[in-house]
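Issue 218. Parser rejects a valid record. Input:
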Amino acid sequence: MKYNFDEIIPREGTDCFKYDYRKDYFGTTDVIPMWVADMDFKTPDFVMEAIRKRTEHEILGYSLRAEGFYQSAIDWFRNRQKWEISSEWMVFTPGVVPALNFAINAFSKSGEKVIVQPPVYHPFFHVIKGNGRKVLENPLKLANGKYTMDLDHLAGKIDQSVKMILISHPHNPVGRVWHKEELHDLASLCIENKIIMISDEIHSDLILPGHEHIPLASISEEIAGMTVTCVAPSKTFNLAGMSASLAVISNERLRKRYSHQIEQAHLWLGNIFGNIALETAYRHGNDWLNQLLGYLSGNVDYLRSFLEKELPRIKLVEPEATYLLWLDMSALEMTDDELKQFMIEKAGLGCSDGPSFGTGGSGYQRMNVACPRSVLKQALNQLKKAVDQL
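Output the parser choked on:
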């Protein structure tokens, strides 16, 4: 079946965070929203049909997850990422950010330190500080347009108060897919210092051509034994509103500590439709995802070409994964506040502000290109018109 990603789906008036919250976030509704990390494409028809079928039974009571739920995830990660996991390792969570919160409370105490590698997904900072822990920054290095980890810096910062690291893999917002060697070196340093690794791999299905995702926990049993891997179909299949994700933990001792947090919050049941959506997406989503990746790759190619020809002062940090593009706009020579207002008021674009991702975000904007190409073209034309008037 051929899927149509060019179709424009009106989302206003559906209580959609990305569209209906524009006035509160940007001060105006007159922006193309390219910020929140969900897609402007239809949720796959096979997922919608499975949900509709369940609504034919007119009781929506408590629901458990059958073995097929876990088997769909086992098969998915085996086939897509060559990663062998078992149902016993999986812990249901109502989203990856909640999963990070559970991990913080399971494996650290108030006042202890948690490592992040900025510029990075801003909720990493929130879950650490909000739970009374301290952020230890290990900023990424940028050279020749490519980001790498600075493990020498990290080794010099580790002390006995450091208990955990939150890893963005693939990295949001810089788009890196960490290589096996990079992950191995990071993990070796963490294991040596008894630091538990929380690997946020929510974007791991969205790998662009020429790159391969290696799950951190797949590298060795030793690494897996110190790793909690957070995965979900939400970014992949546009299911963020379903609140269904998994934490994969092979170490039984860590898994018990983690599961205790879920049980204490009484969140282990999940919801009927989230369970159905996850299982159906993982069971039937292979062809849909392949077509999506082709379309997203085309959007990235279009944006890259447009910037090179029409907006050479704006540089694309070459993405290896995700539909979230990291744009270096420092050559426009604006302060961060000026750049933010320029994007909103002059370009009419609602992107994610670079400084919100922490150290290294100044002068950048993150743009979500998971939209019909006609919308992307309109957005880039608006940006060009605004830059030309500077």
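Fixed in the parser; the record now loads. The chain has 15 helices and 15 strands.
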